[in-house]
Amino acid sequence: MAPRSAGKNAESSDKVGVICRALRRAIIEQALEPGAKLPEDSLGERFGVSRTIARHALGQLAAEGLVELRRNRIAVVATPSWQEARDAFDIRIELERLVVRQLAGKLTKAQVATLNAHVDAEDGARDGTDAVSIRLATEFHILLAQMTNSPILVRYVSEVAYRCCLTLSLYSRPHSTECAINEHRAIIAALVKGDEAKVMSLMHSHLDSVANRALVAPTPQRGRDLLDILAPYAEEGESDRVVKMPKVVRVR
Amino acid sequence: MAPRSAGKNAESSDKVGVICRALRRAIIEQALEPGAKLPEDSLGERFGVSRTIARHALGQLAAEGLVELRRNRIAVVATPSWQEARDAFDIRIELERLVVRQLAGKLTKAQVATLNAHVDAEDGARDGTDAVSIRLATEFHILLAQMTNSPILVRYVSEVAYRCCLTLSLYSRPHSTECAINEHRAIIAALVKGDEAKVMSLMHSHLDSVANRALVAPTPQRGRDLLDILAPYAEEGESDRVVKMPKVVRVR
DNA sequence: GGGCGCCAAACTGCATGCAATTCAGGCGCT
DNA sequence: AGCGCCTGAATTGCATGCAGTTTGGCGCCC
Question: Which CATH class is domain B82-214?
Answer without folding.
Answer: mainly alpha
